[in-house]
Amino acid sequence: MRRWNGWGDSATEMKLNASALAMLAELAGTAQPTQDATLDALLAGIPASRLPPHALISTDAAERFKVALGESYPDWIRRRFGALPTVPDGVAFPESSGEVRKLLDLAQAQHWIVIPYAGGTSVVGHLDCPQSPRPVLSISLGRMNQLLHLDRKSQLATFGAGATGPVLEAQLRAQGYTLGHFPQSFEYSTLGGWVVTRSSGQQSMRYGRIEQMFAGGRLETPVGTLTIPTFPASSAGPDMRELVLGSEGRFGVLTEATMRVSPMPAHESFHALFFPDWDSAEAAVRALAQLKLPLSMLRLSNAIETRTNLLLAGHAGQIKWLERYLGWRGCADGKCMLMLGVTADAVTARQALATARRLLKRHGAVYIGRAMGNKWLENRYKGPYLRNSLWEHGYSADTIETAVDWPQVKNTMHAMEAAAHEAFAEFGQKVHAFTHLSHLYPQGSSIYSTFVWATAPGGFAENLKRWQNYKARVAAAIAAHGGTVSHQHGVGRDHAPNLALEKGQLGMATLAELCRHFDPKGIMNPGKLLQDGGGELSWDREPK
Ligand SMILES: Cc1cc2nc3c(=O)[nH]c(=O)nc-3n(C[C@H](O)[C@H](O)[C@H](O)COP(=O)(O)OP(=O)(O)OC[C@H]3O[C@@H](n4cnc5c(N)ncnc54)[C@H](O)[C@@H]3O)c2cc1C
């Protein structure tokens, strides 16, 4: 069963070993566990629904609470400290595009607010419910999760947009195909959520980002149905798919998506290599990304993330031997770990791996084989479960990501970590900050930083204040280095204040005009992507 106040399935646990806890005490300071609120206490505070009874809508308090929050840090501490968020007045569970259409028509006629809800894994406040004189309806897409059509000749599969990763892949694999989209939130996030937040999966190097896979679909908007047909390619003006990608529930509800799928690969393997230092590692992966070999993944950890990962791996004896061997090969204190994936037919995979290893060796890489790669594969979705154990030991965790062109990569990474250190130092606190490059392109790379700090006494308000301060400082560091507000998590409410920096005034006006076009009454997920919604809306918290 999915945890109500933590990440993932309650049957899965990731424990922190003694060495990892000692490292945290050194780098993030000592911590004290805090008292968790109970679900019953939160549910007891939910006000009565303002919606009239309707066959498609549940007004049950527990159902409404489930869709009120995502997985951002503020969402997390609300549940843990018992700070009740504003909760939608009702939840609908449509089973077809027709039912979504009916719900949108009703919401539009009654002037309700609509928030599409899918996997609830947003980490940037996409699901925040506004306080408004208008009732709020959440449309939960979980029942629209079936493979509707498979065109084997064209390798196109049409799904209900509410299919989660495991449900979607199981249906495709039964037919010999894969979508190949594996975000770390795979267990719960959905096809529709991926498309409208422009998601990126761990093997995007082979399969592409979600925008390369999205071939067409059906968007139910307040003013009608937008059907996007599939073409292998087209020069017929601006591409309507771009209106859906990244729309974050503002233009309508994506009910069906047709995706470019691939036959299951014959060969897939993951390999670990180490570099003596960051500069040699970055030069190596840049050259490799620009060579455009058929690799599926490159994931380069900086020195502090490498140290953290080796400690978290457990097996202290084996890691000691590995470090001794690496030291002897020139990879000592500042060493950086690279995880490399190859997904292809057996011959192509062998050739790609051999070419990659030759290139990386020229930059000082030490290849250590597949054992750590196999471990990575086994645990590919388990990292976020550490957030549960961290909290239980008194630590908070959060991640921030961006993407920049190659000349800015190293400085941006350092600036993001430094901004977090400065932000927490203002409160007399330390933070353990570490980073990896997770999606590499010939032009540049994404940068993904993780931050762990001791949860402060003082409950929700105090911890929210400290988080807002660090988030704003890291966002400013990203902006100062020309980074995008998000490489893969989207905009939501948390990144909306900085969006104008990259879209410009005319760009923002265009987005606002598109919202008015598809949604003239302003019912669709207001306040997300754009800071709009008029004076009638207020929020439980403001992004800084
Ligand atoms: C532990 C963890 C790991 C993560 N790892 C990754 C990662 O590796 N890569 C990555 O890209 N992201 C990652 N994310 C972020 C998150 O999983 C993505 O943003 C995901 O795409 C959200 O999908 P969802 O189905 O959960 O959508 P939700 O969180 O339910 O909704 C997100 C937004 O999309 C809108 N929406 C959802 N479905 C529809 C629809 N059918 N029509 C219209 N609007 C809709 C909602 O209204 C909301 O605005 C991670 C998150 C967590 C918590």
Keywords for this structure?
544 residues, alpha+beta, Uridine Diphospho-n-acetylenolpyruvylglucosamine Reductase, domain 3, Alpha-Beta Plaits, GMP Synthetase, Chain A, domain 3, seven-stranded antiparallel β-sheet, 38% helix, binds flavin-adenine dinucleotide
How confident is the prediction overall: mean pLDDT? 97
Ions, cofactors and other ligands present here are:
flavin-adenine dinucleotide
Strand content: 15-25%
Give the fraction of residues assigned to helices. Answer: 25-40%
Enumerate how many helices there are, as a single number. Answer: 19
**Unreliable segments (pLDDT under 50, ≥5 consecutive)?**
none
The CATH topology of one domain is given as Uridine Diphospho-n-acetylenolpyruvylglucosamine Reductase, domain 3
